[in-house]
């Protein structure tokens, strides 16, 4: 039998389904850490569409999960325990990160021990110190979405100063970071969102905003060096006409083309076709998150928090995220 100091409040999932499969419990076992891991007392966690897709079973062929599990990839909180091999972090440090999925398999009887809980465990190299100018609620809104945008723009598109980028889905969790990171890199940004979010996206620095209900950007005559299809409701083929001669189309949600393109690319290059399709699949990295943190501390990037729910209302938070229309991120206040 577990005693109070070994248990925690958490949102546990015992099978795929609607938001009501998210069960709030007070006696979940706390995670332990291995030599290269740390345990974090969670102050806030954020809800990503990935969590909703994992919960519903939409990704079950790709991300085969065992149960019971605790969802949640993003965390902001305080280090409470460090493994024997961990250097650079100590109990009491205020940190934020995207948790390492692999590190979460082994501990405390949960198939995955995510951040919808009072304590979470992660590999130390996923950690970053929390930016001083953010609250824990704001910091929890950053890691997965900002890392996705950073990896898409820097690693995949190799976006440079002076280039022109179009961001489709600019008002959401990932898009709101993509607009700001692209501006920080010195690009000219065209953002695509719905009319109600135009002002928000302009406030994030977009040079030009398109309401997708009024204008189809694929039908315009402008050309871009990069199209970042955050919402991924268009295709490489549809966007080719607006890509410059060596333009890059970056997709957030994989399709068959994401896997087929690398196979046909050598032939396309032989015929002088330089345009390319890239797919981003976010990976946790403390080092890369530190680059985002520097942009936040410099005032170049800020998280957009749409709403905050207490941990025991995680199911309602999922309903809100799934109903769409939110600008920025939905956060769970845990502590
Ligand atoms: N590959 C990866 O590693 C990775 C990582 C993170 C996310 N993702 C995926 O990327 C997608 C976006 O994630 P997110 O966190 O940014 O989601 P989100 O916060 O729900 O944002 C989605 C945005 O899409 C916009 N949108 C809806 N219909 C649109 C349309 N027809 N044209 C243009 N924009 C439209 C909405 O803007 P309006 O409200 O203004 O309509 C909304 O803000 C999700 O499918 C997610 O699973 C993939």
TrEMBL record:
Domain Enoyl reductase (ER): 17-332
UniProt xrefs under PROSITE patterns: QOR_ZETA_CRYSTAL
MF GO annotations: oxidoreductase activity; zinc ion binding
Keywords assigned by UniProt, alphabetized: Oxidoreductase
A Pfam family assignment: ADH_N
InterPro entries (UniProt xref): ADH-like_N (IPR013154), ER (IPR020843), GroES-like_sf (IPR011032), NAD(P)-bd_dom_sf (IPR036291), Quin_OxRdtase/zeta-crystal_CS (IPR002364), YIM1/Zinc_Alcohol_DH_Fams (IPR050700)
Keyword Ion transport attached: no
Keyword set includes Oxidoreductase: yes
Protein name: NAD(P)-dependent alcohol dehydrogenase
